[in-house]
Amino acid sequence: MRGDLDDTLARLARREDALRRRGAAPGDEPGRGEDGAVAAPTGRDGYGAYRLRGGTRPEQRDPVREIAEAVRQVVAEHPGLAVTLRVEQGGQAYPLRVAWSGAEVRVGR
Fold first, then answer.
1. What residue numbers bound the domain in which 20 lies?
2. What SS3 state is found at 80?
3. What does the pLDDT look like over 10-52, one tens digit per residue?
4. 36 and 6, same structural domain?
5. How is 34-73 classified by DSSP, letter by letter?
6. Are strands 92-101 and 82-89 parallel, antiparallel or unpaired?
7. Does residue 6 belong to any structural domain of this protein?
């Protein structure tokens, strides 16, 4: 009986440690409502690897737009600066030029 209690306590400690690393409180359980009832997943949330990570499906983001915005922010901090770059994704190339045009920074081809 003592061995079963030790195993249970060790499992609880590992679970609390995993919840702490994930940012949830030890009493919180993913997929459960305040009344303790299991919430039904909506869409693809709660299935597969997303469920195992305790999160939801990540939003689809365009990496080319993210890069263009990051470069635009840097150019905006340095008047007169212009940057020309080529972003490749999935075999497709996207030439970009980020430069000042009058009083604003523009992103173009």
1. 2-53
2. coil
3. 888 888 878 777 775 555 555 555 555 555 445 555 445 555 5
4. yes
5. TTSPBPPP-TTTTSHHHHHHT--PPPP--HHHHHHHHHHH
6. antiparallel
7. yes
